[in-house]
Design brief:
The strands form 14 sheets. Strands 1, 2, 6, 7, 8, 9, 20 and 21 form an eight-stranded mixed β-sheet that branches. The chain is of the alpha+beta class and about 1150 residues long. A hairpin with a 5-residue loop joins strand 34 and strand 35 (about 860-870). The chain is globular and about 90 Å long. About 25% of the residues lie in helices and about 25% in strands. The structure holds flavin-adenine dinucleotide. Flavin-adenine dinucleotide binds near residues 37, 234 and 310. Pfam families: ANAPC4_WD40, GIDA, GIDA_C_1st, SAM_GIDA_C, WD40.
């Protein structure tokens, strides 16, 4: 019933402007919404649904609901937003069902949690639906006009900068209009400029008037808001009949269209009348036109950031030269004679645009109806907003849509709806509401915006949502409709009743599935299944059975109709529910933790700069700039440390000052949980008796760190060890090493007896020095020893051989990669186990982890990237349980040693965490986009060129430039270091010499000098200039040997750490004198990997892996000094 009523609404409501053109009906409204784009329309409708008398003012009524760019809705991540807007009774989903002409579910090959409902729309129909809906919404008046000025009053004389919005003034209208709240949704119109070729004109969109300068003035000058600048663009529109579609590939829609709205069971366009899309590609001619016309294209020459995920053809060509780029030819509507070429957004002069189009075979005769153009516009940095989307400095002023730095209709609509709800509530004196990132993509979007801000147009992706298996497109109604009705008041009673009915049906259906249990043999017979094992009979419930890929709910219903047929209506939803049930249960704990943090609000008047607690100046400045609303938002700020969170928590909960000893075990339970979580203690460990809580007081607060009770014992053991190298000869053995057994760099490294894989390299490295002929006798201890300058801080015992290790950027975690595919996280403070990351169901779970890097996703989350000898690269949430993505590239004509399979050996992440590169045994380097998870490029040496333009043998080390996003270097067995620019298909230059076999290639973040470590005896460590590739200095092998380096690092400004195999030793060398200052030796196997803690309390701590152990080494003098300073 509900479905039919909503779907037919546009027919029964006459299409009219009467209400709008009649002008203002009063001089006082509860809410005024400025702008009738996707954010404004949802905001106005939501405010009115909440019960506020609302006025929508927009420049042109006929552009309400206009799709300014691609006439399409939804997609991966965006489809979830449309579903959520619909679940909150918004307009977008129903409008999409009314206007869609080509429906498809993207990402179908993946799990239903990340399916992306998408539709190509008829522009006219979409507009028609939105306008009809708005003009018939009770309590909503729509008026055409341009808002010139916001009226604000000083709220409190004692708090300069705190304002209250009181109304607005329209251009050409004398009388101001008063209101309690304003929602500003002016999109790209804030100081917007249009670009085409070399011409620029003011405007936010072609054909529309520019926005009034008065608004910019209020925001910048009166309210003092920080404003940034972004850009976007649109492609030319092409006359369909001039396109040779036989030269493009047909992309049919889904046979059965899936509606966006929960209120609809079918789409307006019947399946058989849907239109098709087409796919074609760019040619080298397109790249040539772009390059030749760059001087005529002022939009592309500007520095302003454009959308990374929907870039112009100019950006794509310049970023990935030599590539074929996809171009989708999409219908603009059922009756439209135009095609929209998605992927060809451009801003060159019109004649050049036409020339470019005609370089594509299918468009050789194409006629252009309107040229493409670019827009640059101001956006308000969204960290200045509360999660309710109200501006922090101005009570009653809400911002939504592209004005907040997002791009896309769905992102705009989602914010608009929530801003409208809160503006309405504020006007009705109701408290603000926020959506958590644990319950919705809208919550993720808003949290990302307000807590992290934007540096480029923000677009939604499923990877931004850490709880995406719970936040699925199929269950948005269950997640949000009850809240929308019970709390926000923006959902109709009818829709609410429907959501409750569905919830009840699903619960009963699940109970029915759990109630039917049979032996697997009986299930096999009942369902005539071959996928159930015959040999072992176990009892399985129908819920277990439904988890089999080949089994549908309909099959169960036809086999046992009495029990299951009443729930056939929910067949697909029940299947998805059981698929994700156990996963969602696991996620619940993490969600509860986040909700707990979210519930702890931080007072907005805290003066972070002078807060009497131990926060670093950097953390104070971050907190002062962003002013997070909750403790949860504070934890997600980049640069926040667990210790800082604890200080903050302590301050806001007013925990009294405690003495060091008195504090042990005396923190209240919530604080304890938060503290333990913030330093990453696992659930099991929290309850484990082996973990005590050690609280040490720091000036004014309480710092919490979990410390094993065994710590004291270890401490004693540490001090009982002989403290310096060779202090006692009694327990030292004598053995020797031979010099120069390594071949020259020019020789074939195959003869080098270097093992054939990362793993075997480590294994054969064990004790290899023992077999060499004596040349110089040196007494080396057989027990691990440090000399007086190094101190063993902790030893971590692992269950199997350790392959790789890495500290996180904050220095609060040490990740250790094992031979069996497990990654474990430890607390560097005390070596305590924190968490295990492993997917036991994966084939590569048993493959060695060859390298690990920490990074951050586009906006907020800590991620861990790992490469495996199986050839995989996988990405994990540090604090979640699941793998975010996994990739394994097929070997395609790679060089190297003829391996059938690529072993991934190394990895590096770019400075802005946007890209990662991996190097492999097939001599190739693969470049990935970390936001889209796509492989951007595979680099390999060309077979035709004589110059070295890529690696000829396996690639063992990679390092992105610390400041230049597009540059990285690589080193390997072919005795070269290659320099890469991701805009070029081949290496741009090289230096020769280092024979790299491990993580032995580093760029100094300050001087940008390169450090290389060689797996050879004549040359070990070398320092090179990045710019000239000239050698600066080299460290000669010292009498103790250690001439084969597996791993080396810069250590602060003045030192180098080098670890290797020959004497299983790690050394600290002075960078300028090149003298060895300290040694760690006497290990029974090679120091295969090492890492230096980059920041925090343990900055400079060295991790060295040898066999099953990880040694944490502290340069004694440094540590004592540093900790004294901290205390
Ligand atoms: C040229 C162009 C290309 C784009 N390309 C893409 C793309 O490829 N992919 C993508 O995902 N997104 C794209 N977008 C973005 C997408 O269209 C927007 O993100 C989305 O429409 C933003 O919605 P909004 O409601 O915030 O603003 P808009 O849709 O821009 O609406 C703003 C509204 O405010 C009105 N207005 C402005 N100033 C005033 C005033 N002073 N008084 C009254 N009314 C006012 C305007 O008339 C307009 O109706 C593009 C946008 C543009 C302009």
């Amino acid at each position: 019933m509900l479905a039919r009523r909503l779907l037919i609404r546009p027919h029964i409501i006459p299409y009219r402007y009467s209400r709008a053109s009649s002008g203002l009906t009063r001089h006082q409204y509860d809410v005024i919404v400025v702008g009738g784009g996707h954010a404004g329309t949802e905001a106005a409708a939501a405010a009115a649904r909440v019960g506020a008398e609302t006025l929508l003012i927009t420049q042109k009524i006929q552009t309400i609901g206009a799709l300014s760019c691609n006439p399409s809705l939804g997609g991966v991540g965006k489809g979830q937003l449309v579903r959520e807007v619909d679940a909150l009774d918004g307009l977008m989903g129903r409008a999409g069902d009314w206007a869609g002409v080509h429906f498809s579910i993207l990402n179908r090959s993946k799990g239903p949690a990340v399916w992306g409902p998408r539709a190509q729309l008829d522009r006219g129909r979409y507009r028609e639906f939105i306008q009809a809906e708005l003009l018939s919404t009770p309590r909503l008046t729509v008026v055409e006009g341009s808002v010139d000025e916001l009226l604000v009053s000083e709220l409190d004389a004692n708090k300069p900068g705190k304002h209250k919005v009181t109304g607005m003034r329209m251009a050409g209208v004398d009388e101001p209009v008063q209101c309690s709240s304003v929602v500003l949704t002016t999109g790209t119109f804030l100081s917007g400029s249009l670009f085409m070729g070399q011409t620029t004109s003011p405007g936010g969109r072609m054909g529309d008037p520019p926005s009034c300068a008065g608004l910019s003035h209020t925001l910048r000058e009166v309210l003092g808001l920080t404003v940034g600048r972004l850009r976007t663009g649109t492609p030319p529109r092409i006359v369909k009949e001039t396109v040779d579609l036989s030269l493009a590939t047909v992309q049919p829609p889904d046979k059965q269209p899936t509606p966006f709205s929960y209120a609809n069971t079918r789409t307006h366009c019947p399946p058989e009348e849907q239109l098709v899309c087409y796919l074609t590609h760019t040619t080298p001619g397109v790249e040539k036109v772009v390059r030749e016309s760059l001087h005529l294209n002022c939009h592309i020459q500007e520095d302003t950031k454009g959308p990374r995920y929907c870039p112009s053809i100019e950006s794509r060509v310049l970023r990935f030269p030599g590539r074929r780029h996809q171009v989708w030819l999409e219908p603009e509507g059922l009756t439209s004679d135009l095609l929209y070429p998605q992927g060809l957004s451009m801003t060159m002069p019109p004649d050049v645009q036409l020339r470019l189009l005609r370089e594509i075979p299918a468009l050789r005769q194409a006629e252009m109806r309107t040229p493409g153009y670019g827009v640059q516009y101001d956006f308000v940095c969204p960290t200045q907003l509360f999660p309710s989307l109200q501006v922090k400095k101005a009570q009653g002023l809400f911002l939504a849509g592209q004005i907040n730095g997002t791009t896309g209709y769905e992102e705009a609509a989602a914010q608009g709806l929530w801003a409208g709800v809160n503006a309405g509530r504020s006007a009705l004196s109701l408290p603000p509401l926020s959506l958590s990132r644990t319950e919705s993509y809208i919550g993720v979007l808003i949290d990302d915006l307000v807590s992290r801000g934007v540096t480029e147009p923000y677009r939604m992706f499923t990877s931004r949502a850490e709880f995406r298996t719970s936040l699925r497109p199929d269950n948005a109604d269950l997640r949000l409709t009850p809240k929308g009705f019970e709390e926000a008041g923006c959902v109709s009673a009818e829709r609410y009743a429907e959501a409750l009915r569905v919830r009840k049906g699903l619960d009963e259906g699940l109970a029915a599935l759990r109630s039917v249990c049979m032996s697997s043999t009986r299930w096999r017979d009942t369902l005539a299944l071959t996928c159930i094992s015959k040999t072992k009979s176990v009892t399985l419930s129908a819920e277990d059975i439904l988890q089999y890929e080949d089994i549908s709910f309909e099959m169960l219903a036809s086999a046992i109709p009495d029990v299951f047929s009443p729930y056939l209506e929910f067949a697909q939803r029940l299947k998805i529910e059981v698929l994700y049930h156990s996963h969602c249960e696991r996620q619940k704990r993490e969600m509860e933790r986040i909700l707990e943090e979210e519930s702890l609000r931080l007072p907005q008047d805290i003066d972070y700069l002078s807060l009497p607690t131990s926060l670093s100046q950097e953390v104070r400045e971050i907190l002062d700039r962003v002013r997070p609303d909750t403790l949860g938002a504070a934890t997600r700020l980049p640069g926040m440390t667990p210790a800082a969170i604890v200080h903050l928590l302590n301050y806001v909960t007013k925990v009294p000052r405690r003495g060091r000893n008195a504090a042990r075990g005396s923190v209240d339970s919530m604080q304890r949980v938060l503290c333990l979580d913030s330093v990453g203690v696992s659930e099991e460990e929290k309850t484990s008796p082996s973990v005590g809580i050690f609280l040490s007081e720091m000036s004014n607060g309480v710092v919490v760190a979990p410390v094993s009770i065994a710590e004291d014992a270890r401490e004693k053991e540490r001090h009982s060890e002989p403290d310096s190298l060779g202090s006692s000869g009694t327990d030292s053995d004598t053995y020797t090493e031979s010099e120069n057994e390594q071949p020259d760099s020019d020789q074939d490294p195959e003869k080098d007896m270097v093992p054939s894989s990362h793993l075997s390299a480590l294994k054969s490295a064990k004790g290899e020095g023992l077999q060499k002929q004596p040349q110089q006798e040196i007494r080396i201890p057989t027990q691990p020893r440090t000399d007086e300058n190094l101190h063993i801080h902790h030893v971590i015992e692992c269950s199997c051989e350790v392959m790789s290790c890495q500290f996180n950027p904050e220095g609060t975690l040490l990740a250790v990669g094992m031979n069996d595919g497990t990654i474990k996280l430890y607390n560097p403070e005390n070596g305590d186990f924190v968490k295990r990351i492993r997917d036991s169901s994966c084939y590569f779970a048993s493959m060695p982890v060859t390298s690990i890097r920490f990074c951050r996703s586009g906006q907020s989350h800590s991620l861990l990237l790992a490469t495996y000898a199986s050839g995989h690269m996988r990405c994990w949430y540090v604090w979640g349980d699941e793998c975010v993505w996994s990739v394994k590239e097929a070997v395609e004509g790679g060089k190297g040693e003829g391996h059938a399979q690529r072993q991934t050996l190394c990895m590096s992440v770019s400075c802005s965490n946007e890209q990662a590169a991996s190097g492999g045994s097939d001599a190739t380097i693969h470049l990935y986009d970390l936001a889209t998870h796509q492989t951007l490029q595979i680099y390999k040496a060309s077979s035709t060129r004589t110059l070295m333009d890529g690696h000829r043998l396996r690639v063992f080390a990679l390092a992105f430039h610390p400041e230049r996003e597009r540059e990285f270097i690589s080193g390997g067995w072919d005795n070269t270091v290659q320099f890469w620019d991701t805009r070029q298909p081949h290496a741009v230059r090289m230096l020769s010499g280092p024979h790299i076999c491990g993580d032995a290639l580093q760029i100094d973040p300050v001087t940008h000098q390169i450090l290389t470590g060689s797996w050879r005896t004549d040359k070990t460590l070398e320092i090179w200039e990045y710019g000239s590739a000239e050698k600066v200095s080299e460290v000669l092998p010292d009498p103790y040997g250690n001439s084969k380096i597996y791993s080396c690092h810069w250590l602060g400004r003045d030192h180098i750490v080098a670890a290797g195999s020959q004497l299983n030793m790690l050394k600290v060398i002075h960078r300028h004198t090149l003298k060895t200052e300290s040694r760690f030796m006497g290990l029974s196997s090679a120091v295969f990997s090492s890492a230096v803690c980059p920041a925090g309390k343990w900055a400079g701590l060295i991790a060295a892996t040898s066999g099953n152990r990880v040694w944490l080494l502290d340069r004694e003098g440094q540590r004592v000094k540093k900790n004294k300073q901290i205390e």
